[in-house]
Amino acid sequence: MIACLGRIVQDTDADSIPDDDVSTLSESLDLQGTIESGGITGVAGKDFGGLYSVKPLALIKPSGTEDIARVVNAASRTSHLTVAARGNGHSINGQAMADGGFVIDMRSTEENHFKPLTIDGSHYIDVSGGALWEDVLKRCVSMFRLAPRSWTDYLSLTVGGTLSNAGVSGQAFRFGPQTSNVTELEVVTGKGEITVCSETQNSELFFGALGGLGQLGIITRARVKLQRAPDMVRWIRVVYTEFEEFARDAEFLVTQEESESFDYVEGFVFSNSDDPINGWPSVPLDPDHEFNPAYIPQTAGSVLYCLEVALHYRNSDRPSTVDTAVSRLLERLGSIQRLKFQLNVSYVEFLLRVKQVEEHAKANGNWDSPHPWLNIFISKSSIVDFDRTVFRKMLKDGVGGPMLIYPLLRSKWDSRTSVVLPEGEIFYIVALLRFVPKGPTVEKLVAQNHEIIKWCNKEGLDFKLYLPHYQSKEDWKRHFGNQWTRFVERKTNFDPMAILAPGQKIFKRTHIIKP
Ligand code: FAD
């Protein structure tokens, strides 16, 4: 459909769009997809966080890469318009928004690419940047019995959205984050150029876009590494009273050879209470499992630790073989013997486990409530201090949702990408996934997040925010540390007018008049 910009102009604040911009845009935008403006852009001005809302100029539903390039090119001919790719809008702090600018709904391109490839005996899938990981999973498994190797916990996220951050879950200790599991991207840069890039072709753009917070380009296609999909998963949770023991076992598991460890390692902190959300009932995997608090030693403190692991297996494996393999691995752990929960689920069911949480939360209205989440990467050298003050004191009653904590290995991350990490080989991801009702509590919890960060800074902890959010350039400079210069150079090369991803609030839109 040919876009009709005249309508958009009428629907928006006339002062904000100079006439010449509008006429220039009208001439240049000749989309195959559609443009929506006014009230129907509503979804583009909100995100999962529910903390911010803005009014975009228009929501564009492109039919493909050419449309996206046209929009970026058109914006570049104005002095002020910006462009935000919106994956599934699961950011927390307005990162996928464009106040007064164009929001590109990447989901409208989700079907554009889905092509399996075998290169030198290895399997890959080319998928759209706007595809949901859950669809990639289901299609790859049902059609080829293959699957990506590295995931996020929740899969209603887009390929481009997670690759712009990192994409972390319990497989990352072995395969690295999702950004370590792609070999080629097609990107629309901030100059409106469509560029294919990889480790050997336009490598600055390839590595820059991975973890690049959408600053250098819009990912329209990604080539994702695949492995043979297992049929089944033994999903296990065990409990610890002491952080040091939990951390020792988790670190042990993530540093073993593949044959000597589980295929998935995560963990979480929960309060030592019967609170249905934050306490003991959050641990069992099945309604039939009972968490018996009598097994918790008297010496336990205000919080406990759950190590969550999983082992892949095939339908052809005998149950006794799986039992033996699991027992052999569990034997080495120092968890409380009698607080152990196990479940056999299909591989797809396991990877879609948070979907059930979503359905449940949607049914009771919690899914749409605000989510003042905080995600941090913390160096092993600082994690004990963090636990002692933040988990055991500040958050001892929980956060109204999961408090994840598990170790990752820096050597599995490519330092050429734009992701920034703390120092040292072992670092932890900490995720405070708060589900809270609307109201004044939200501000209090945002303030508590700030307090945690302030405390980390004051104590000199070695940490970096994951899914970062800052308001000032100084803070961003500090975040990137010694990678700031490289990031700025990449921005200057690929998005010199700072058209892309304005919601990240890193760079100010500028205008360079082309000769
Ligand atoms: P959006 O929120 O739409 O966009 C995020 C950023 O990327 C924006 O700046 C946007 O402009 C940019 N962007 C979007 N698409 C593209 C593209 N194609 N090209 C370039 N830039 C683009 N993260 C993890 O790592 N592990 C987890 O286990 C995990 N679990 C989560 C569970 C839930 C319930 C939620 C809400 C989030 C979770 N996240 C997790 C965080 C998630 O990875 C990020 O919020 C991610 O950005 C969301 O993807 P999205 O597709 O919704 O992106």
TrEMBL record:
Entry superkingdom: Eukaryota
Limits of the FAD-binding PCMH-type domain: 52-229
Keyword Cell inner membrane (UniProt): no
Any GO BP annotation: cytokinin metabolic process
PROSITE patterns, sorted: FAD_PCMH
SUPFAM superfamilies tied to this protein: FAD-binding/transporter-associated domain-like (SSF56176), FAD-linked oxidases, C-terminal domain (SSF55103)
Alphabetized UniProt keyword annotations: FAD, Flavoprotein, Oxidoreductase
Cofactor(s) the record lists: FAD
Keyword Flavoprotein listed: yes
InterPro entries: Cytok_DH_C_sf (IPR016170), Cytokinin_DH_FAD/cytokin-bd (IPR015345), FAD-bd_PCMH (IPR016166), FAD-bd_PCMH-like_sf (IPR036318), FAD-bd_PCMH_sub1 (IPR016167), FAD-bd_PCMH_sub2 (IPR016169), FAD-linked_Oxase-like_C (IPR016164), FAD-linked_Oxidoreductases_BP (IPR050432)
Gene3D superfamilies noted in UniProt: 3.30.465.10, FAD-linked oxidases, C-terminal domain (3.40.462.10), Uridine Diphospho-n-acetylenolpyruvylglucosamine Reductase, domain 2 (3.30.43.10)
GO MF entries: cytokinin dehydrogenase activity; FAD binding
UniProt name for this protein: cytokinin dehydrogenase
